[in-house]
Design brief:
With about 375 residues, the protein is an alpha/beta fold. It has 15 helices and twelve strands.
Amino acid sequence: MRKPIFLDVEALEEYFDKRKVDLGGNALEELNLTLDAAVERIIRQQKNRARIVKNDYLKKQMPATKVLSTSQLASLPSWVAGEIEKAQVVGSSKQVVQIPDGRKYHLGNPLNELSGGEWTFFLNSVLSTRYPTSGPESFAHTTRKIHPSPKPPQLMREIIQFFTKEGELVFDYFMGVGGTLLGASLCNRRAIGVDLSSEYIDVYKTANRELGLTEQVTIEGDSISLLKNPSQLEKQLNGDKFSLVAIDPPYGDMMSRSKTGEAAKKKKDSSSTPFTDLGEDLGNFDLEDFFPVLAESVANALPFLKNKGHVVVFIKDLQPDGSNTNLLHAKVIETLNALDGLQYLGTKIWADQSVNLYPYGYPYAFVANQIHQYIMIFRK
């Protein structure tokens, strides 16, 4: 975590000088607006916290160690168990455990180990991030960027933490350079990843060593074929089941198209960057073939997903093309929701603010900078 920048003029001037930031134009105004917004957010948080504490004070409270059974104590997440001597059971239901900092955990939560506040925060349908791409907070991005679209382990950790408990299993059968597997390791989950490319798997293992994390199980091969003939997967599972399937499938032939805008500018090359040049790579399929194969793969994965387990799918739309809207996410939702035993629950939109904007269409037409992806959530 970065050291805080203390709000004195000299420290700020030194910081901006080091970062070569020109404070002319609207820069200071933007900083003031950002600071005002942060202060307002802190005030709201403190008021809410004070209100909650006041309400909790009026409720019946009992020491958790005197109320909870041995099995209940054993089932507590680590962040509660570490404070158990000071924890209180709040309310007459005897189902809510509160630790000294105000966080609460509901004993009847079968899905995850989050506090009520963390649960609520995750439900925000729009997620805007600017993850670092260098330094220790980038989680080995410099190593992983060999992949055309590496998923941030920090993002995957948040998703995994919501849909699983510690020690449970996560499956990513389009693992790429292992953002999902790294995210699982960051929150003490187990994971199995599959990819066609031995190079990508090796990159994942290198990044994992750099981060000093537990290496997850990887399988090199065609995941579509593996799910049709799952003996290798069954051997790895040994009767266990996944709590979460999280996939970022290659989007038809999207990566096989020539690059434009910022992607071309960065590499000084408009050449396509397919995930692999293999014929069985879903990323090299035409769109009309992509959707049924994706649906078949999810259907074949469902027997290995526990009851009420979740499937999370990432996808990014293509730009509209004449009468074709290219709303891939809508097609994915329709296709997967039609599968027996799978129900669509909703979508989160992930806005990646680290993507630079480019003047597409200037000065003649509107062409959106698509910095967002859709995270579609289904339940078995």
